[in-house]
Amino acid sequence: MGCSCEKLKLVYKSGSTKDYAALQSLTEAQVYGIKQTWRAIKDHIANVGVITYVSMFENRPELIEIFANFRGRNVGDLQRSGLIRQHALKVMGTIDKCISRIDEPENLAKLLIETGALHRKYNVTPDVIQIIFPHFLNAIKPHIEDYWTEDIATAWKTLFRIMTHYMEIGMTRDSNDVNTINSHFSVT
């Protein structure tokens, strides 16, 4: 099944003006670029995840305290214990699920809203979710240098804006809203 650009213009209907913020849609070319680069990245998924988190924690060490299993440890301890790798693989698995659902916008949005709701249980705020992206982008770039263009960078940035938007919905809604999410979507 091919990508339908119209399907990627998904809007969550709740009455909040924030939810109606203009989301940049992914073009078919961007979806193709994301899928192609992800294939190359998947061979290095654990390394990309670890580099992403190490970079983030080195730049923002206070974020270590958000993770219950990480509290009171430094980055080196977290690397040696394998805790960063373990969490990074979960995150990379979620990104993999997102990319596999990129042609199914309702399923993609539902996954991200549920992921956001899970993060809310751990008291993660929406602004923290956005912090990881530049570190992820820097971690993937060496693995896809042959494909790297500004268009690819823009495609990944657009995907992450979409991902963070729907995760934020899950982080800011109560569990009843998240459980009944299918009735709140309109594909334009």
Automatic annotation (TrEMBL):
What sequence ranges are listed for the domain Globin? Answer: 25-172
Keyword RNA-binding present in the record's keywords: the answer is no
Which InterPro entries does the annotation name?
Answer: Globin, Globin-like_OT, Globin-like_sf, Globin/Proto
Question: One Pfam family from the UniProt entry?
Answer: Globin
What keywords are annotated for this sequence in UniProt? Heme, Iron, Metal-binding, Oxygen transport, Transport
Family statement: Belongs to the globin family.
Q: What is this protein called?
A: CYGB2-like protein
